[in-house]
Amino acid sequence: MNVHEYQAKELLAQHGIAVPAGHAALSVEEAVEAAKKLPGPLYVVKAQIHAGGRGKGKFKELGADAKGGVRLAKSLDEVKDHAEEMLGNTLVTIQTGDAGKQVNRLYITDGVDIAKEYYLSLLVDRATGRVAFVVSTEGGMDIETVAHDTPELITTFSVDPAQGFQPHHGRAVAFALKLTGDLNKQAQKLAKQLYDAFLATDCEMLEINPLVESEDGKLLVLDAKMSFDGNALYRHKDIEALRDETEEDPAEVEASEYDLAYIKLDGNIGCMVNGAGLAMATMDIIKLNGAFPANFLDVGGGATTEKVTAAFKIILKDPAVEGILVNIFGGIMKCDVIANGIVQAAKDVNLQVPLVVRLEGTNVAEGKAILNNSGLAIVSADNLGDAAQKIVAEVKKAA
């Protein structure tokens, strides 16, 4: 789960981490009132969307010469003007794609006199099972270019969870940032605070870009992105309450209500499977047969008929879907439960696209009998390769 910048900074502030003063706003009036609470005379008006690259982004409705989603304001009138241009309009960044995201929230922060920008992030390194630090002296809007063109300017190291954060980790961060004196001490302290916050909130990713050195010699978190392990949110009801569903795909929101793992993709063949590994194999074999998956949908190992029916309906709500491949291996999952869900969903939505089903495992004979006796035009497959070939052929035939 992702949160907005202002929410991430509020969480970091709870761990003693220094962030510039700021207030969220949902309207132009609230934006002006937020600025009035700050010392000024320099303010920053920041669009709040779940995507990076806001500073270089452009608003669709404002033309090619429009300013980005992070703007300086030297008066309350400028705050008002920026808020009016941003709210309700669509911000397109390198991470949103051409569709962009509508800006429904703003963050008004105090201006900072910046002496230097740095980059600092923590993430879960799945290769080692450890929390990794990624540090660079080259922070700011061009960090992707730095990573691509000059990777030697980025330092990465991980923390052994058995030992936890040690003083030498803090020194490694300060050394990578090339800081000396009091700034070096601040960096060591900040690294420990960020690591503790990362663990305490069950973070998956915590990115500070930029971390800035102010003209008066302070390290400040100028921008922050945080994402959290969805499987651990039951331990963090306060963080779960920060979820902004307007930033998510409606189908993914609906899927989460049924405890389904759903991710929309760009293809035309819907996939319903049980198990992430099987999902990846299914998508791969669809591509090997010349087509592209329209989604990743995992019903899990304990799906009910209701859950399967919901999964089927979610797939069919995507207008790009021209055919569906159901690939189920029934270990804990029972094939007859899957079959009942498929039949119920197909009848509920008046299925009009080809459907190929491959079932194997527990109660497979019962499952196949349910499908065969359903009266629906369901194509049965014997194995994964056969299933992929058949759904691709059926979609081409129907085109």
TrEMBL record:
UniProt entry keywords in alphabetical sequence: ATP-binding, Ligase, Magnesium, Metal-binding, Nucleotide-binding, Tricarboxylic acid cycle
GO biological process, one term: tricarboxylic acid cycle
Cofactor(s), names only, from the UniProt record: Mg(2+)
Keyword Ribosomal protein in annotation: no
Keyword Cytoplasm annotated: no
Record-listed ATP binding positions: K46, G53, R54, G55, V112, E117
ATP-grasp domain location: 9-264
InterPro entries the record matches: ATP-grasp, ATP-grasp_succ-CoA_synth-type, ATP_grasp_subdomain_1, Succ-CoA_synthase_bsu_CS, SUCC_ACL_C, Succ_CoA_ligase-like_bsu, Succinyl-CoA_synth-like
Cofactor notes: Binds 1 Mg(2+) ion per subunit.
GO terms under cellular component: cytosol; succinate-CoA ligase complex
Assembly information from the UniProt record: Heterotetramer of two alpha and two beta subunits.
NCBIfam families: PRK00696.1, sucCoAbeta
Protein name per its UniProtKB record: Succinate--CoA ligase [ADP-forming] subunit beta
Organism: Erythrobacter neustonensis
